[in-house]
Amino acid sequence: MLRSLLACCAGLVLLAASPAFAQRAEVAGRVVDAEREEPLAGVHVTLAGPDGTTRGQATGRDGRFAFAGLPPGAYVLTASFLGYAGASDSLTVGFGDRVERVVALDPEETALGGVTVEAAPAVTTSSPAGLVQIRPADLAAIPAPDLSGDLLGVLSLQPGIVTLGDRGGQLYVRGGTPTENLVLIDGMRLFQPFHIVGFYSAFPADIVQQADVYAGGFGARYGGRISSVIDVRARNGNKQRFAGAASVAPFLTALHVEGPILRDEVSFVASVRESVIERVASGLLGEPLPYRFGDAFAKVHAFTGPASFVSVTGLRTTDEGDIAGSNDERTRVAWTNEALGSRFFYLPQTLAAALDVTVNYAAYRSSFEAERAPARDADVKSFGGEFALAYFLQRAEVRFGFGAQTLSFDYTLDRASGRTSEHTTEGHFFVETDLDLGGGLRVEPGFRLQAFPAQNRTVSLEPRLRAVWDASAVTTLSAALGVYRQEIIGITDERDIGDVFTAWAAIPQNEPTPRALHALAGVEVRPRRWLRLGAEAYAKQLDNMQVLLGSRGLVRSQGEVYGLDLRAEWRRAPVFLFVGYGFSAAYYRNAREDYRPPHDRRHRLQLAAEVERGPYRLAARWHLAAGRPFTRLLGVYDDLGTPDPGGAFVTEPGTPTLVTEPLPFRGLTPAYHRLDLSFERDFTFRAATLTLQASAVNAYDRANFFYYDAFRADRIDQFPLIPSVGLRVEVR
Amino acid sequence: MPRPLSAPIMLLALLLGGCDDAFDPFVEAPQRFALYGFLDARQDTQFVRVQPVAAETREPRLGEATLTSTALGSGAVRAWQDSLVTLDDGALGLLFFAVFRPAPGEVYRIEVEGTAGASERVEVAMPGVPPLTANPPVEVGDAITQRLRLLSEVRPREVLVIYSVRVEERAEEVTVTAEAQPIPDGSGFDVFVRLSSDVAAVRAALGLTPDDERPVELLGLGLRYLLVDPERAVVEGGLGAIGVAAAFEGGWVLDPETVEALGYVDAQGGTR
């Protein structure tokens, strides 16, 4: 079957490259930031032709655009983008010509002089068919307890994304679990890219060029996970001059540097962050916050030709601490991520195509130690790569690719099962097309083949379809449908949120592969240039889920998730307002019981606002979330194990053990709400900007429940009011 | 499945109730107890540790629970005495005890009642005397062995073969250890008695040298063993376990030819 599909795809490509089509002209190229030479995604590019037709496109993830099948003549190419001065160029194409243009857009005064420009609606964060695109400007609008900025701030603002709180570093997307999210940076997989403190991920704002977040319904080029995709594209360093930034705040310190290695050709960017809060919390807050975390990132980018580049990216994160917040190391969880990858990208001069080749290595280690309980630890390593090709046709783009990964797992879950070592391989092939059907309708049909030869499983065929229709100048409708499978699973005890230990493993041989069916539909209305309203409904069917339920081990479960996301965005200088509401209902069931999983927060309401006047910026965010299910307790006792006929049980102390009610997740925690505020003042000098920040996390000191330590009869809350001041120096 | 109006109604309720931050992790349910103990037919006094399942670990109090046992066969009801013991870590534990020897084959219902009326109940079946059958002895070369079959669901421990012997007027019981092997079909256990090998042990126990030609009379053969099951009864929900232990002894008769081949004088059916 695989062979015949490959043949079909090859035939499709050959047909598209037929001589009749090739006699027409092509105009292709990239749009980049003139200062940083980074590709800009989402730029509105138009090509006005001699026949009076104006063709339009938004640039892709690499800043690419391509107009094919053009009649000969004179054209005007224009590009416009939020925060940049527009650019236009006249060009003439002959019969069968292919013209390449690199359009460099100069940043507007926004970044330099503090003058805010009115936003153009086409380029701000949008959400067609489950996709949210996040750019660095979006990250700055979210209040945080430091000035380094982080992708997680914007992620957690999305209505369909749920976190369990300020601690733990777990992200649940539209009813899925954290280990069902595919997280990529420059094509490299990361297994647990979120820090133990819930404000931070492995992605500081300084390294993010763009993040595509698919809350569901993602296309065929993504696979191996059944919930969501967070695809981060890291920035390239400045190829003209050195620049950098350093920030310090009670939560963490951060340093970011970039610059040319070979002027105009090779650059680097590096970022290091290290937590401070574990050292200052007791003095600042009067209570310990024993969380130590940090990350380091580096990327080297080099142009290898007028239309090709190669990059090498490396990332390492470390986390350790006691989720329950005590300082006596009663329980200790730790994890590290390491990833290294390389990417080669090539736009051939003579072919309307783009080649994208990636290789990557990733490792994740986690461990969990608890008082009077066996230690657990787990390692997972993966190595692989992907070869992808995009082919530009007149009104379509065809993308296909194949890749492979090897994965090794090594873990100890409990004393009884001992240590497990597994090794598996994965191969995939995908085809997806981006078809412009006219009338504002674009569809992206595709499919993905996923194979696990080491496990003797049948090749899974996963059809996908995405569609976006600009029904009018102000209304966009979108929908997506897809089948997704996940052959490796992250094993985490769903019952205990204080235990975030995760062991990755292959699906047991005798168990079917977890599968999800996504269906979603949405509408976005832009009644004014500065106002955007959106609604998206979704449903997921989950089959053959492997859920770890304490001593019962992995339990095969089914599930359904239904939800509705509503959002309103106001971007009119000097005010930015965001209101998001998410309703989500998740139901899991196994052979014994039906239940709501612990991340089933039914309602979330997010309000964010930012006002910017000259060098001053005030940001606020209020977050309200319904309670989440938990398994109610009957009490604790000391388990004496098997009684000894010698009478040792008479004086044996035993092991403290929880007794829960027989049916899980019947309780509901109190609602969660929190207000975060930040106030910033910029001082701009000739070559540097100094920013001072005062912020307050949980400004009205709400006692938000997080975790109950039954052995100590101790309620542990989320973060209290945390006042903070921060300083950032940015050198240009 | 969500009903159409449930979302806005629940959101309204959420907004109204959002100020409440109280959290009670416990469900209202009858008091439960964890029970750990042994009914040991070899002992005069029986012990059961009782732990109230509570919201937090705390030291128990005398009088917060009562424990009774009822022998379902005889109908005898016995109230156990509570006491506080110092555990190995210095904390206090609630220990119930009663002076009696459980009867083999009897079923005991153990009930714990809390002062609030809650109760925990578990039924413990003492093992009865298992049927013992002896296969004919087998002679291979100079070795004579015999297989005994014990139809017990509990594996026998501390298995001893008892030789009742007499030299002149001095009678003795000599014990030799043996192994019990499970029968593949799960119906019980086999004990292999090494009759010829045991002769040397018997003579040595009697103080006879190999040259001593005084006759040794075989008065009888017996098998002594212990049946111990530490998890005879598991309390509902895994809240503890009650074990049982009982010692048993059975005998069989060896044919005169084998007795003679072993060098004994057959006196079975005499004093034993």
Task: Please give the structural blueprint.
The complex is a heterodimer of chains A (732) and B (272).
Chain A lengths: L1 H15 L2 H4 L2 E9 L10 E5 L5 E5 L5 E7 L2 E8 L6 E7 L4 E8 L4 H4 L17 E4 L1 H5 L10 H5 L5 E3 L7 E3 L7 E5 L2 E3 L17 E7 L13 E7 L8 E6 L3 E11 L3 E10 L1 H9 L5 E15 L2 E14 L9 E16 L6 E18 L2 E20 L3 E17 L6 E20 L2 E11 L8 E11 L4 E11 L2 E4 L11 E4 L8 E14 L2 E18 L5 E19 L2 E15 L4 E2 L7 E11 L2 E10 L3 E2 L2 E7 L15 E6 L6 E2 L3 E13 L3 E10 L7 E5 L4 E4 L4 E10 L1
Chain B lengths: L5 H12 L15 E8 L4 E8 L12 E7 L5 E3 L1 E6 L5 E8 L7 E8 L4 E7 L6 E3 L3 E3 L2 E8 L5 E12 L2 E8 L2 E3 L6 E5 L1 H12 L9 E19 L5 E13 L3 H7 L1 E3 L6
Parallel strand pairs in B: 1-17, 16-18
Antiparallel strand pairs in B: 1-2, 2-6, 3-4, 3-7, 5-6, 7-8, 9-11, 10-11, 11-15, 12-13, 12-16, 14-15, 16-17
List keywords for this structure.
heterodimer, A: mainly beta, Immunoglobulin-like, Ferric Hydroxamate Uptake Protein, Chain A, domain 1, 5-stranded mixed sheet, 45 strands, 6% helix, B: 272 residues, mainly beta, 2 domains, 9-stranded mixed sheet, 5-stranded antiparallel sheet, 3 helices, 18 strands, elongated
Overall body shape of chain A: globular
Beta-strand content estimate of chain A: over 45%
Give me the secondary-structure category of chain B. mainly beta
Radius of gyration of chain A: 26 Å
Overall number of strands of chain A: 45
**Roughly what is the average pLDDT of chain A, rounded to an integer?**
83
End-to-end gap of chain B: 78 Å
Strand content of chain B: over 45%
Largest sheet of chain A: 22 strands, antiparallel, barrel
Q: What top-tier CATH class of the largest domain in chain A fits best?
A: Mainly Beta
Share in helix of chain B = 10-25%
Question: What is the CATH architecture term of the largest domain in chain A?
Answer: Beta Barrel
Tally the beta strands of chain B: 18
Terminal Cα span of chain A: 55 Å
What's the number of helices of chain B?
3
- The CATH superfamily of the largest domain in chain A appears as TonB-dependent receptor, beta-barrel domain
The third-level CATH topology of the largest domain in chain A is Maltoporin, Chain A
Rg of chain B:
29 Å
- Helix share, percent of chain A: under 10%
Tell me the count of domains of chain A.
Answer: 3
